[in-house]
Amino acid sequence: MPWDLDNERPIYLQLMERIQQDIVSGVYKPGDKIPSVRDLALDAAVNPNTMQKALSELERSGLVYSQRTSGRFITEDAGMLKELKRKLASEHIQTFFQKMRQLGFSDNETLNIIQEVIKGENV
Amino acid sequence: MKPILECRRLTKRYGSFFALSDLTLTLERGQIVGLLGPNGSGKTTLIKLINGLLVPTDGYIAVDGCAPGVETKKIVSYLPDQDCLGDQMRVREAVSLYTDFYSDFSTERAKKMLDALEIDGSLRLGALSKGTKEKVQLILVMSRDARLYVLDEPIGGVDPAARDYILRTILTNYNEEATVLISTHLISDIENVLDHVLFLKEGRLVMNETVDEIRTRYGKSVDALFREVFRC
């Protein structure tokens, strides 16, 4: 099943996001070995060089590390994983607020709506 | 190491018509490259020059440092844009023809792919549908361990599911040292598997960039950019 990629943004960025997502959601656990570039590229149906670039960038950020002979692994640094989770959360929230602003709600109004919705669900 | 393909001021002229003019281009190893352009922009002309089926009017072309000829045919696996095998031939005869003809041909790989697509080896090519025949030809071409694969419209006639299979076939079978040059109109289908794209317009090379460079710079897909550059 090819990965769901959009048409506007660079492919390697989207591959990075997808792998980060998989790390946060537990598809990959800390210390797990990740599949080879070739297998990942095949799974995503993308060019292997593009996948290579995405993994190199993740490696540069420290989220994955490579061991010369045995492949690439997910970091076991709990602080870094927590940091990633926070970063992704704040990105989602910013996108959400942006959309609410487009609907004409101020950020405070949006906060009120959120609370109403949460209360509504609790009733 | 020499580039797998090098063209310098390559020109092909028919009378006063320039099918290709002044094309300068280098392809490195280990890439999948899209050759894109509207009808009559020179894609097939370039492909035929690479395969020695046409002779340049002017300029230089070399495959792995050699002029196209017997030596380069050993390392170039070519899928023409039309049927190249007789209708009377059976699928398994086509496989043995390729086995005899090309020392880098893997019979085992071809059989595995034919099995995966449930294509019966005893059928005559003339009895196959257009799409199935295209699949057979692509399987033959991708079963070689070539250094340059030149695929002229490999996905034009097949359904979307088979297109996915063919793209997977290309991704699975090419090795990291090999280069694949694919001409097509169906850009959005293959965009994600390409490193580089080349845009040809009226016989000239008007763009030579990576897919992600294009997306970064223009904020749009190669497909969308193509539609803009070549708006009719």
How do the strands of the widest beta sheet of chain A line up side by side? 1-3-2
Domain count of chain B: the total is 1
Task: Report the CATH architecture of chain B.
Answer: 3-Layer(aba) Sandwich
Q: Mean pLDDT of chain A, nearest integer? A: 91
Give the total of domains of chain A. 2
CATH topology tier name of the largest domain in chain A? Arc Repressor Mutant, subunit A
Helix fraction of chain B by DSSP (H/I, runs of at least 4): 25-40%
As residue ranges, the low-confidence spans of chain A are none
Number of helices of chain B: 9
Portion of residues in beta strands of chain B equals 25-35%
Flag low-confidence runs of chain B.
none
Under CATH, the topology of chain B can be stated as Rossmann fold
Q: Output the helix-strand order of chain A.
A: HEHHEEHH
Question: Mean of the pLDDT scores of chain B?
Answer: 92
Query: What CATH first level of chain B would be assigned?
Result: Alpha Beta
β-sheet strand percentage of chain A: 5-15%
**Chains forming the largest contact:** A-B, 18 and 24 residues
List the helices and strands and how they pair.
The complex is a heterodimer of chains A (123) and B (232).
Chain A: H1 11-24, E1 33-34, H2 37-44, H3 48-61, E2 64-67, E3 71-74, H4 78-102, H5 107-122
Antiparallel strand pairs in A: 1-3, 2-3
Helix pairs in contact in A: 1-3, 1-4, 2-3
Chain B: E1 5-14, E2 17-27, E3 32-36, H1 43-50, E4 58-63, H2 70-73, E5 76-79, H3 91-101, H4 107-116, H5 130-142, E6 148-152, H6 160-173, E7 179-183, H7 187-190, E8 196-201, E9 204-210, H8 211-218, H9 222-229
Parallel strand pairs in B: 3-7, 3-8, 5-6, 6-7
Antiparallel strand pairs in B: 1-2, 1-4, 8-9
